[in-house]
Amino acid sequence: MPSFGLRHRRAWASLLSQLLRPSGLVCIREVHFHSQVSEAVITSQLKPHREKSNFIIKTPKGTRDLSPQQMVIREKILDMVVGCFKRHGAKRLDTPAFELKEMLTEKYGEDSGLIYDLKDQGGELLSLRYDLTVPFARYLAMNKVKRMKRYHVGKVWRRESPTIVQGRYREFCQCDFDIAGQFDPMIPDAECLKIMCEILSGLQLGDFLIKVNDRRILDGMLAVCGVPESKFHAICSSIDKLDKISWNDVRHEMVAKKGLAPEVADRIGDYVQCHGGVSLIEEMLQDSRLSQNKQALEGLGDLKLLFEYLTLFGIAEKISFDLSLARGLDYYTGVIYEAVLLQTPAQSEESLNVGSVAAGGRYDGLVGMFNPKGHKVPCVGLSIGVERIFTILEQRIKTSGQKIRTTETQVFVATPQKNFLHERLKLISELWDAGIKAELLYKNNPKLLTQLHYCEHMAIPLVVIIGEQELKEGVIKLRSVASREEVAIKRESLVTEIQKRLSES
Questions:
Q1: Would you list the domain boundaries of the chain?
Q2: pLDDT per position as a tens digit, 26-67
Q3: Quick one: which H or E segment has residue 479?
Q4: 169 in a labelled binding site
Q5: Which fold has domain 411-504?
Q6: Which pLDDT tens digit goes with each residue over 194-206?
Q7: 68-343+353-400: CATH homologous superfamily?
Q8: Lowest mean pLDDT: which of 103-112, 283-292, 487-496?
Q9: Which of 173, 254, 308, 314 is the most buried (most CB within 10 A)?
Q10: 100 labelled binding-site residue
């Protein structure tokens, strides 16, 4: 029998001593041993993950963080937009970020493939909302609302390859305004276009044009040109590209890729290259082919009435009847519109091409899709392209070198001496209670120069200074950061004096 080494003999001795112990002790020792083994295995499995060196901290593709500077620009845009919506009497509405998948399917045509689906949660198939319009229609049907003027600001999600340089993202914000209810023709539609003009003018984006068409005119045009009804959607999708590619390229796509007869494509080309105002509508009403189509005639009649109202609103020169406008969403049934910025030659070199900055239209059948009896609620609305507008304004601010204030602090509470934290806290509490936006440094004994430099860096307009002399005399020094002038104000008059100065600035 081969001899055992010292370590082997000790192991045998340990095992023998365990076998001779009471059984309870053996079990406890075994449990403890297995627990240690399990812990070691888990630790060894986790260790490689902890030690990964190629981990990259980033936001998901098509999303972004917004810095405090960017949020200032964004809030100004949203304040302008929401202020306009409120001026026109809209109520605010919010809906969940996700909907039942069946609520969103078959509402967006070819774009349905861009909907973000979620995993089965509690027996429900869910999807992130693609826009704010379909959830609004679902809300109207679910709550049996027949009339409503609403606005909604919220994020939506689209599973596409984003072109971030053009302000396109997978997650982005939409600002919608909609009018639901049965009204006389074209009055709500005209107000939507008026709202668009007010917002785009107020944001000072430069000259713009709103293209207008009607789905009835579009469908009637395709029919009289000889397009099979089964190809309406596919051909509309090609026409919608005319703002990005030439007519020759669009024609080639229709014929070579979508199987349209060349002579049919040529007839379409005669129409979609036309744009103008009321005179073009009159011309189309007299067109030998188009005037034979009932749908097209109804659409042209409504557009003529629309331009009458737009003239009364003083915005007709901003609107163009454009037969190439073919917005792709399936739920549009009548007037459709899209706003684009017009660039001068000088601007085109330095500006970003962001496409349309606002769009919308009439969707009279969407609410009925959610109603078991198909009861319809006519609707018309618009959506402001916040991300694209933000991209333009952000670029302009960067180019100009303009400094952006990231806080709204009006007053800074400072001291030139040590051991004055309690007095500063009492003073700033008094300012906060009076509704004044105020700050102080979170230090017991900050240097006065440090405090004043902070005010200049943050562009805080006023500083109140309290020290031994001021405390003894019952006054506070009030300093203008811009002029560096100081005046002594009685403690009890400080809030009134600050409020007066802020109202005058």
A1: 68-343+353-400, 411-504
A2: 444 443 444 444 444 444 455 455 555 678 899 988 899 999
A3: strand 475-480
A4: no
A5: Rossmann fold (3.40.50)
A6: 999 999 999 999 9
A7: Bira Bifunctional Protein; Domain 2 (3.30.930.10)
A8: 103-112
A9: 254
A10: no
